[in-house]
Amino acid sequence: MTVGSVYYPAWVTPLSLIFCHVLLTITCAVALALEQSILQWSYHILWVTIIRTGLGVSHGDKRVTIANNAVFSLFMLVFVQLRWGMTFVMFQTIVGPSIFICILSVHVEQSRESELRATLEAKASKELETSVEAVLATICDAVVLLSSSFRLLRPSPHLAGMLLGSSSSAVFMTGGNFIDLLVESDRDSFLQFMGDPSTHANMLHAHIRDANSSAVTVHFYHTKYLDLEGQPVHIIGVREDSEENRLQPPPQELQSSLSRQVVDEVWDRAHESRASSNNNNRSTASSISGSSDPMPLVEGDHAMSRCVWVDASSIDLMMAKCTPEFSAWSGPSGLNVGLLNWVAPVDQSNFYEFFHKALNDYVRAQTGSESVGPGSIVLKLKPPHWGRSIETEAEIAEFCAGRSNSNSNDNNNEGRTEDSLAEPRILGCVSFKSVRKTRTTQKSSERSSRTFCCS
Known about the structure:
Blueprint: H1 3-7, H2 14-33, H3 38-59, H4 62-83, H5 88-139, E1 142-146, H6 157-162, H7 187-194, E2 202-209, E3 215-226, E4 232-240, H8 260-278, H9 281-289, E5 306-311, E6 319-322, H10 324-330, H11 345-366, E7 376-381, E8 390-403, H12 418-421, E9 424-434, E10 437-441, E11 450-454
Antiparallel strand pairs: 1-4, 2-3, 3-4, 5-6, 5-9, 7-8, 8-9, 10-11
Helix pairs in contact: 2-3, 2-4, 3-5, 4-5, 8-9
């Protein structure tokens, strides 16, 4: 591989470089052969040596360089012997530079091959890393890269979401200590697991702490490779074993992309609602646990869609009304039940941000500003009547103005003022679509294999 063919592959080919190298070597030999004076020949051979050295280095092909210099030296030896007679000094002047040029050419080619080999190995290593991560991402909730000291080599927002933490937390950023996330009793087994000299992929059953300090049962899928400096890089897939028995975070701890002013308004409304609830137990049951009355059904354009309207000002996105299709799909539900409570913990923060990004876009559109909707999001939903989680695709169909009608009879209106019943609010229409995905999860020996098919 020559220098020219590496940097100029489109128009510099090895054959064209060989032709130019030979042509210039012949030109130099002919120019020296035309010299009549030995003094002029001795002066010009110095410049010819510089040109030949440049050709050998720039070409970088040791075989062609050695052949050219051997023929050139033989031609000069015969020419000098026939023209002026050979002396030891003349022999050194001809043969010495040729040997130097050949050695330099061999060194340049070896250096270039080493550089190209390192570049190709780095590219292959990067492709291998990407492939392994892509495979792990299909079966794991998060994939992290750890150094030899078990520190994150890059941020891991997916791991932060799985543990209900903030992606800006130091432990989830580059340099964060992964060991700090483990339950103390599992750290020794984890270090032993990571210290296994085998390069084959293996798995560990362990526990890590989430943002609520609850122990989360996970599976670690591990493999490793060596970087260009020979240091091990660990690729770990983290998969939550179960979403059961985990404490739900307080709704106000969920992250939001709203402005500070809007967040404060929502916070104040939540605390006002909690204060009034403390004075009236029946209102508490309605606002937190949901009313015993079923949600009103909406007819019209959305009747055949799985749509539910939620209160955009509520922390847990309380459901106000739905379509018959949604009610048949999710099962009967009481009025003012929080839709966010149906979302799997690992997806709650992402869905909350997704909803309020759509709300911000709606507000900007009302002021005449151009805005692009957030599209859709795939999440795990677990209505109480299902008893299991199912993946579904959610999108925000529309926003509309409405008024609070959380209770449909006079008995449920006790403890609430007429102004609160007539309080205007914004309702967001969340539409759900099916996600076609089949995944088979291998459990331990005491559990049978279960295949989840979502259609």
